[in-house]
């Protein structure tokens, strides 16, 4: 059931300030998604590579995902770990964003 409102976020480097710091711009796209738990197999497989997947979201139309690197759900920001296209849908595996990112 696609009952959770999410924000897909694309961050791009748009230049540098006078101190040489990178300036990012963000493009947000809101969509409805289904939130699922990470499977046990996926959790253990990711652990071997040092990742901690938090959840999986499913979008009903795979064309809604355009390579965005971050997702906000209920005010919490996540980083995209991987994607998997299943027919017309797409599963996006997420991990919680580190505080210093």
Q: Could you characterize the architecture of this molecule?
A:
This protein is mainly β and 101 residues long. It contains one helix and six strands, in the order ββαββββ. Strands 1-2-3-6-5-4 form a six-stranded antiparallel barrel. A hairpin with a 5-residue loop joins strand 1 and strand 2 (22-36). The N and C termini lie far apart (31 Å). The mean pLDDT is 88.
Mean pLDDT: 88
* SSE ordering: EEHEEEE
Please identify the structural class as seen in this structure. mainly beta
* Secondary structure tally: strands: 6
Largest sheet: 6 strands, antiparallel, barrel
Cα radius of gyration in angstroms: 15 Å
Low-confidence stretches: none
Distance between the first and last residues' Cα: 31 Å
What is shown here, in short?
The chain is mainly β and 101 residues long.
Topology, please?
Elements: E1 4-16, E2 22-36, H1 40-47, E3 55-59, E4 70-73, E5 76-86, E6 89-96
Antiparallel strand pairs: 1-2, 1-4, 2-3, 3-6, 4-5, 5-6
């Amino acid at each position: 059931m696609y009952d959770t409102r999410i924000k897909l976020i694309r961050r791009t480097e748009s230049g540098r300030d006078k101190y040489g710091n990178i300036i990012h711009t963000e493009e947000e796209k809101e969509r409805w998604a289904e939130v699922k738990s990470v499977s046990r197999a996926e959790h253990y497989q990711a652990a071997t590579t040092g990742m901690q997947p938090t959840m999986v979201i499913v979008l009903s139309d795979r064309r809604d995902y355009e390579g965005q690197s971050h997702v906000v759900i209920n005010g919490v920001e996540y980083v995209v770990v991987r994607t998997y296209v299943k027919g017309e849908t797409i599963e996006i595996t997420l991990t919680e964003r580190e505080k210093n990112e």
